[in-house]
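Thread: "does anyone have the structure for this chain?"

Original post by V.I.:
We have the sequence but no experimental structure in hand. Need at least a predicted one for the grant figures.
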Amino acid sequence: MLAFALPLAVLLFQARGSSLAVGEDIEVRFTLITADRTATMCASPESIFGRFCGYRSVPSAVAQPPRSGALQPFSTIGGRLYLVENLFAEPALVARVALEPPAGKDPKHLRRFEARCGLRLLGKVSSVHIRFTPAGPWGMAPTLWVGVPHDCKVIG
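Reply from O.Q.:
Generated one for you, tokens below.
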């Protein structure tokens, strides 16, 4: 019986993610280091729900500085990716960066922490390139939810 219950539970949990709706306000738990403030980025030539990625295209990404307040990809503790606007402008994250400034430090030596936030979903987007380190490779993201964070609390 247990052999059937576990796969069913996994399927039901995964199906829950597909039932999200535009305008919904969800709770998320992002896993971060302070270097993520400038390390993660996306590239898209189009605006995304009135917001923009840091770069318009992948080929010009090296020569073009990222825009402030841009969308960035972040992962939850459960491994789900979201494109998020201004996550590190949230007061709790500003304070966390002040405690552990990433400038001049190897990201491997920065402490990982959790940001528990509300996230207002704006919609889904596909065909967006993302990367997680400034020198890392670009990859095409799967369809991602785009959201605006609020009321973040830092754990760890």
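V.I.: this helps a lot. Helices lie at 2-17, 36-39, 91-99.
O.Q.: and Residues 53 and 70 are 5 Å apart (CA to CA).
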